[in-house]
Design a protein that fits this description.
The protein has about 170 residues and is α+β, with helices and mostly antiparallel strands. The protein is about 45% helix and about 15% strand. It is built from 7 helices and 3 strands; from the N terminus they run αααααααβββ. The chain has a 3-stranded antiparallel sheet with strand order 1-2-3. Strand 1 and strand 2 form a beta hairpin. The protein is globular and about 40 Å long.
Length: about 170
């Protein structure tokens, strides 16, 4: 299979160079929409994501971007999250409708795409699934193995697996 400039396998067979994002500008914009405690939390997640990516051979820029925007919808009211989902065709499960705070991840992926211009599927998936714990593929190699990261029971887990098992 084809790989990008860092050796990551490209599923669509093309060259995938992530567009440049001004993370500092995004951070300033984000600070206007979240409270101070959430902003500090977000900065911690942003830099921890980058550190984990560096330690495990993942795309540092994608990890930092996902960490920065992972809670971009956290401070939106529950009723507004539901309205955003309904208006934009974002599916809501019964569990989410009864616990709308869970929607911040889905709404966050939408906001990251629409308001911050994020187009990378890996980043949008990381934001969308950070609450539900869906494994995130962080690296792929031509032999079909992938390294995934997920959090369960308060601990980070890294697993190397074949693409079919993900």
């Amino acid at each position: 299979g084809n790989t990008d400039c860092t050796g990551h396998l490209i599923a669509d067979g093309g060259w995938n160079i992530m567009q440049e994002y001004d993370l500092e500008s995004m951070s300033r914009k984000l600070s206007k929409y979240i409270d101070q405690n959430r902003w500090y939390h977000t900065q911690g997640v942003r830099f921890m994501s980058a550190a984990l990516a560096m330690a495990h051979g993942a795309d540092l820029k994608k990890a930092e971007l996902a960490g920065l925007l992972h809670d971009c919808a956290k401070c939106i009211s529950d009723s507004k999250k539901i309205k955003i989902c309904d208006k934009n065709g974002i599916a809501i499960t019964d569990v989410e409708r009864n616990n709308p705070f869970l929607l911040h991840a889905k709404v966050g992926a939408y906001i990251a795409r629409v308001k911050y211009g994020v187009t990378e599927p890996d980043v949008l998936d990381a934001i969308r699934y950070h609450t539900t714990g869906r494994p995130l593929r962080i690296t792929s190699s031509p032999d079909g193995t992938s390294r995934v990261i997920f959090r369960r029971s308060g601990k980070w887990h890294f697993v190397t697996s074949t693409s079919a098992a993900i």
